[in-house]
Amino acid sequence: MSNRHLARTIAMQSLYEWDFKGMVQEKLPQILKHNLKEFAPDFDDKGFAESIVKGVVDHLKEINNLITKYAPEWPLEQITIVDRNVLRIGIFELKFSPEIPPKVAINEAIELAKTFGGESSGKFVNGVLGTIFKKMENGEEKKQKDSQ
Asked: Is 3 exposed, middle or buried (0-12, 13-18, 19+ CB in 10 A)?
């Protein structure tokens, strides 16, 4: 597993736990720290996982609005916690991480969904992120520089 894929996996697990436990922002750094120690004690690129988690939280409202807009038949609270947080990571990388190529952001999110989600999670994530990407290509959604 590549370092960046591992970082995305830990970020997803941390966001999942945070979401499951009620999204108390003050608890998120401790959750991430615990997961890094538990699942990747010798991991040398912890900053990437931290930047994903921080970026998702910093842009959470806009990211959630995009999920709602591009998955209208699925109210946010009815999307499984795994799929919701995989989408959050994918959208963060797609829209706010100019250094991540869009196809990498989409493919990584699909892999996370297939690994941790349900039977149709990969297709669902691919559909939502693919639609957002097409809108970005058409100029309807713009990739934004991260303000971090």
From this structure: middle
Q: Tell me which residue of 129, 136, 109 sits closest to 9, measured CA to CA.
A: 109
Let me know if domain 3-138 sits in CATH 1.10.940.10.
yes
CB count within 10 Å of CB 144 equals 12
Verdict on whether the full-model pTM lies above 0.85: yes
Contact between 39 and 10 under an 8 Å Cβ cutoff? The reply is yes
Q: Are 29 and 51 a contacting pair, CB within 8 Å?
A: no
Where helices occur in the chain by DSSP H, the ranges are 3-20, 28-39, 46-58, 60-70, 81-96, 102-116, 121-137
pLDDT in tens, the chain (148 residues): 578 999 999 999 999 999 999 999 899 999 999 999 988 878 777 689 999 999 999 999 999 999 999 998 888 999 999 999 999 999 999 999 999 999 999 999 999 999 999 999 999 999 999 999 999 888 877 776 544 4
DSSP structure string for 83-110: HHHHHHHHHHHHHH-TTS-HHHHHHHHH
